[in-house]
Amino acid sequence: NGHLFSGPEELIVKPQTQTTYPVTFAPDWICMAHSHLQLYDSTQGELAEYDLKGFGEDPKPSDHHVLVAQPQQPKSFEILIEENLLEKNHRYKIETDLRGVKGPEKLTVDDHDKGVLFLQV
């Protein structure tokens, strides 16, 4: 499961300073992962070793919307997706327990942009 963890291959720290080594854990689904991290200080010749554990949890909905419509009367809805502040495109998976809803199953919002989801009930 070590492929679920990532970080830079090299980290340069100026003398008499300190920094943080960023480790990212990015599971695709629910899981428990273990990995081993070694950091080597080439100026001191020291090796630091760490055991990493990651727990991928059940994904939670990012938002919840209530749609009010009358039976047998089609109605369209526009749902605004807030600005994507990530430095990359963000994909949303659209799920509903309503019967007869028409709309996309996925929506991609570009980085630093907003999105609109169109649904018809």
Overall description:
The protein is mostly beta strands and 121 residues long. The protein contains no helices and eight strands. It has strands at 5-6, 24-25, 31-41, 46-56, 76-81, 90-93, 106-109, 115-120. The strands form four sheets. A two-stranded antiparallel ribbon has the order 1-2. Strand 3 and strand 4 (46-56) form a beta hairpin. It is elongated. The two termini are 42 Å apart. The model has no long low-confidence stretch (mean pLDDT 85).
Write the layout of secondary structure elements.
Layout: E1 5-6, E2 24-25, E3 31-41, E4 46-56, E5 76-81, E6 90-93, E7 106-109, E8 115-120
Antiparallel strand pairs: 1-2, 3-4, 5-8, 6-7
What is the structure about, briefly put?
Helices cover 0% and strands 38% of the residues.
What attributes does this structure have?
single chain, 121 residues, mainly beta, two-stranded antiparallel sheet, 8 strands, 0% helix
| Helix content, binned percent | under 10%
Structural class: mainly beta
Mean pLDDT comes to: 85
Radius of gyration: 22 Å
Number of DSSP strand runs:
8
Residues in β-strands, percent: 35-45%
Q: Helix and strand string, N-terminal first?
A: EEEEEEEE
